[in-house]
Design goal:
Elements lengths: L8 H27 L5 H39 L4 H23 L6 H29 L3
Helix pairs in contact: 1-2, 1-4, 3-4
Length: 144
């Protein structure tokens, strides 16, 4: 029997692919940002700029995919009382990432920016762990 809440294979692969892109570009950007004061810092500065562009482009695709997930997957799962806790955590984590990225891009406040950056980095590092847990819990509760 097919689980109606399981995402379409191509959609799932696309989502996992773009989330992987987001994680990898974010992690490499952290290294590049840390090394930009090194003697070869100009190269790292240039790399950091390209990584942020790739990360931002991936974020736009991620927003489209998350928007597609909410009315079908999340809404139906919530109404069916399936995987609510990990689903709520996923929605919250993604909301934190979206909100902090908006703040990082549009806020000019140097007092708030470091806080937003730390929260964004922390949520971005934790998201893959929560996503894997959400998937495993969902499969465990799927109808047989």
């Amino acid at each position: 029997m097919c689980d109606p809440l399981r995402l379409n294979r191509w959609f799932r692969r696309g989502l996992y692919g773009v989330l992987t892109l987001m994680f990898v570009t974010g992690m490499i950007w952290l290294v590049a940002d840390w090394k930009k004061s090194a003697p070869d810092g100009e190269m790292w500065q240039s790399m950091a700029a390209w990584l942020l562009m790739a990360h931002g482009g991936g974020a736009m695709i991620t927003l489209l995919l998350l928007g597609a997930i909410l009315p079908v997957h999340a809404y139906r799962s919530w109404r069916g009382r399936r995987n609510r806790t990990s689903g709520a955590i996923m929605v919250t984590m993604n909301a934190v990432l979206i909100t902090t990225s908006f703040g990082l891009y549009y806020m000019g406040s140097e007092a708030i920016r470091p806080w937003l950056s730390d929260i964004h980095i922390g949520a971005g590092i934790c998201l893959p762990i929560f996503l894997v847990a959400h998937i495993l819990l969902g499969r465990r509760t799927a109808p047989v």
